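Q: I'm writing up a methods section and want to include an example of the input and output format. Could you take the sequence below and give the corresponding predicted structure tokens, formatted cleanly so I can copy it straight into the document?
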Amino acid sequence: MSSVSETLTNIQNEAAPYIYYTELFLGFIGCSMNILLFSRRQFRTMSISISSVAMWTTLSTGVISCIYTIHYADPSVTSVFYCKFRNYLQIFAYMIMRWSLAFACLDRVALSSSNIRWHSFSKVHVAYRVVAIMIVTWLILPVPSLFYYNIKGPICAAIYNRATQYYHPIFIIITGFIIPVSIMIISAFLIYNNLVKKRKRRQLMNTQQQQQEIRNQTNNQQRKRDRQVLWILLCQSIAYICATIPWLIYLTYSTIAVSVTNKSSERLVIERFAYFLVEPIQYLFPMSSFYLYVMTSSMYRKEFIMLIRSLLPQRWFNNNNNNNRIIPITDSSNKRIVNGPQIQLKTTEEVMNPSENIPTPATGIIIK
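A: Here is the clean output for your methods example:
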């Protein structure tokens, strides 16, 4: 083995644990927070909530299996069932994640539309039906992978023939990248167009002078929420595209190079190293989705802070409210010490002669 091959192999062996453990730690925290936040009442009707579960499944089937193969023998090269089922489940989770994001964009388009017919598609029962259809569809479409994935030498891979050589990569590229990304980009433009139209209508409605200030404040809040939604969708689409392009490049190359039979050992090492670089990148989007939402949405940040406050003991947040101590006072008439809340009771003379009463800070219950 040449020095280049040895160097690449050593880098792969040394860097793999750090990369996958970091993705597992940050990804599970982020996906768990997403699931908790999207299960709250404010976000429960958002169609994007289903993608959080799909992201968690993607990390479970992908990153955990990669970590297991670092320390133990890879079961995908010893068990045919595991080889087939793992790839089937990965395709299912990936596609549910991608298409739920695309459907979330369409849901925002319908919600921002002023057309009553289009606006009706943003109802909760419609979202439930679409999600159910989407799950059933992607349980069926990856079924062919159960037939052409098998153990091939030291790896679990798609056993290509003339039919599967082009079917699998074209299927993944079209259904996993071209269509979802096109939906995201078109939805972003449609949402922006709808928001511009809504802003113009609000400006035309502000004709009454006495309500101008109140409406301006309402419009500012509405515009802020609209910009937030559009910004989240744009950042989400950009992050998804950046995390998917390297994998598509590798998939295209492997499809073209699958017909090459006389590969040198150095080329095989370089191809394995390229796969090692590309595989963690495809987990970046499910790992970073929570942190992306926190950075781009103030509403999401507020809900996250409220969630943390609800999970932690309330006494941690009530210290500032308990600084007022109850100090015992002595009644000058009968020398009694009375403890109680900071409330001062008036005597009969004070009620009859209010002009003589001088308000003083209350430090206890005064009984005369």
